[in-house]
Design a protein that fits this description.
Strand content: over 45%
Structural class: mainly beta
Oligomer: single chain
Radius of gyration: 15 Å
Largest sheet: 6 strands, mixed, barrel
Distance between the termini: 33 Å
CATH architecture of one domain: Beta Barrel
Order of helices and strands: EEEEEEEEEEHE
CATH class of one domain: Mainly Beta
Helix content: under 10%
CATH superfamily of one domain: Acid Proteases
Amino acid sequence: MVDKPDKVRVGALELCDLPELEISQLNVRIDTGAKTSSLHVDNISEFEKNNRKWVSFDIHPDIHNVDRIVRRDAKVKGTRIVKSSNGGSEHRYVVDTLFQLGVHQWRIDLTLTDRSGMSYLMLLGRQAMENRIIVDPGEEFLLGNNSGSE
């Protein structure tokens, strides 16, 4: 298959930024088997701001330092029932946020969930990558290496 020039070639693991959540250099698993994108968060609490539903949550942005916790807020776009890989279903908050891979940026829907039993804090699902990227599953960090991992 020949890469289309308008699509970005990525590996199974990449580093991403979530600028509006002030999170950078986050390991993201590029998962063509997942429909939705998800982010591991803890201690979700709902509140109202300007007559809109918002959530506040904790995140561990550095996979190598789990003691570092940051609190972030995001406007709720909606909720979604998501089927997990183990067959269970879960109601999740959905937030709309800016996503960045290398120099490429676009908006994605991101579901918030407890991924503490998983290897990666974030999954990028098919809906977020459609018509934008091509995945080379045998590669990792094609858009930049995680210099803090070794």
